[in-house]
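Loading example: each entry is read as two labelled lines plus one structure line.
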Amino acid sequence: MSSSTSHTDTVVRGSAASVVELSHVGKRFDLSGRFVRPDPGVSSLWALKDVTFSVDAGSAFGVIGRNGAGKTTLLNIIAGIMQPDEGGARIEGRVMGLFNLGAGFQDELSGRENIYLNAAILGAGREEVDCCMAAILEFCELGEFIDMPLGSYSQGMRLRLGFSVIASLDFDVLVLDEVLAVGDALFQDKCFRRLADLNRQGKTLILTTQDLGLIERFCDTVVLLDHGSLVFHGAPADAVNRYRALLSAERFYVGPVPRTKTLVENTKKWADDISLWGSRRGTREVTIDRFQFLNRWGWPVSSCCSSQALSVSVRFSANTPVRDPHFGIAFFRDDGAYCWGPNTLFDGCRIPYLPRGKGSFTLVIRRMLLAPGFYKISVAIWDAAESVPYDYHEGCYEIRVTGAVDPDRPLLNMPFYFSDLHATCGPDKILTMIDDHGKEKDSFYTGQPVTAVIQGTDNRDDAGARAPCIAIYRDDGVCCQKMTCNASGPRKCFFFPRLLLLPGKYELRYGSARYPFKMVFDRFDHGTVSMEHSWKWKIDR
Amino acid sequence: MSKAIGAGDPMGGSVKNRWRAFSSRHLLYELVIKDIRVRYRRPILGFVWAFLTPLAMTGILYLVFGRFLKIKIEEAPFLLYLTSALFTWRLFQDSLSAATTSLYDNRALLRESRSPFYLFPLSIILVNTFVALPGYVLVIVLSAVQLHGLSWHVLLLPFVLAVHAAMTAACSVIAALLYVRWRDIRYLIETSLVFLFYATPVFYSVNLVHELLPAYAYRIYVYNPFTCILTLYRVAFIKGYAVHVQDPAIVPCIIIAVVTAALLWASAVLLYRVNKKYVIEHVAY
């Protein structure tokens, strides 16, 4: 062995030591299924052909390619499960692989017994498992299920168990084959945090996935395979671009659509999962240290008035230098209704690079448009592709917008003017909306001046004394804004200098009358309203 | 070794990994534990089934051949003669039929690991040997009661069991490897096990065969490896049974059994070496 090692050392002279080295690796599958040695020319398939590369110790290495490109075969060879038919592979240290998830589990045994079995399959003995049993149990978070037969587990729970075992054992190289897609967001995030930790500890990770954002975010080097050949070997961004080109060339691509100039017609209207509020996740390359609301004089506050200015200031520390991060802040009502979620990516503010050290960013809101009530705030620092956050404080902070809370709990308090109209002005309808050219329309652009016109006759009959009330609702029934007026004329109008509702379907309600309309916008944003704002950031020297 | 690592090697590729410390011992242990748990945890009678099935079989054969057909055995009481063969035969039969499909049954485990896969059939032999032990004790007790005491021949039992288990294990590894490529093996083995059961003197006397066959054919019959093992077991269980009989003599039986076990092992190892590369691919479907 020593002679082979010394030979390799001369090959990779000058570079970091490689833990995996493949040279001209080929693998042929026999499709005939015959017992006697089959004829190699006929009915066989080269799953891999002439693949040569090496993986540096301590790197995160990605393998991408279409289905059937040979990714799994390659990982199988690296993990030592399959033998190549041509060429050679040299692997340093202990390799562990997580392939078809939980397939190596026995349904009849309990979770705990399966941990021992699975570890033994991976080559670890009972003593080693006993040492890290506490870590495994803590990581998989299966609670009392751990002593139930595995047959009662869901796919996600199997993944939890499988990943926990492999991530807790001691290894030098870890091979992961598209297995992490099953877990829920929180567990996936935990997995990536653990993987990032392991990577920082100098373990080598080799993974395949169809999540290109993840590949770009996570890997140092990527190889692209197609039809068993190595097409590209290099930086993740380039590999992903090559892969996209490959996919679109063959019209197979079903991945995420690149951002376009077309109009946005809908936005995210609800929080993903309010039970996660108060949790912190992320891989912690960058961590959020302090979060503050500042009033217009820069004093920390915990409440503000509607239509006042407000700033959100976040201090962070970058533990590793990162490229192209972006910041995001989201406001939710306490039932999960998404109010507003600006981030620097949507706003086109590019932060090219964060060096190691501390810094801060601030979201300056010119005018707080939220109606009185309590709101939860999430803060996140994302990677370029928004695949896995560096740090994500979900619903961890709260602000009170002071004022009387309406029983219908409207979300917003957008500025508007109210006036009486002459009986002859505008179209003759109970309820209508007109744009800044006086035309009746049902589709508006976010930020456009809009007027809502009502004819008061409908309401006069039953509740003469009550002031007429008009309201905007989202199509999911959430009240966005209520407007009241005390005027007595037969025709009234509400003028919004800028109707700042975000894309989606809305409805104007007045008594029993309904006027549906929709909003469109040329920018991506989340929530219900778009407040006028700007971003500032600085890095401490 | 001094050449570039397997570059352009037309004879096939190689994987070199300095991490040699794959713990086969641990995996074998876990597989044995797993097998015992899977088999005996859920049944209400649990481990008792390890006795009940061979006992029931003994009861049936005793009724049919001992009571209805009234087969006479001069060398030993019929019940003892029957159990001494039946319990040992079951070890061979159960192990072989379970081990044949063991690689296929455990394909999910196999495809996750670079463990040496002969451990899977081996673990089945270990479990079955372990499960068979109480039955053996039962036969010894029966022998002590019916023959009023034990002879020193019973000390041969561990050795006979070891040779028997080794033969079974080698057969199992061979069958399991062949089954991966050649799925007919399973039915062939099922059929030949039935044939072998009736061809070995389990419930009829060797003397009966002696009268039926010419001398050379009888010698072939009595010195085939399966009969040899059976004879050795009977020597151990039935107070040196063969000492009184002329022809299955103990020493040739021992030699034949040991040589057969060694030959079977050699072929199992050879077959494993040749096929180990292909098993992963062919076990998948």
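Residues 48-282 of chain B form one domain.
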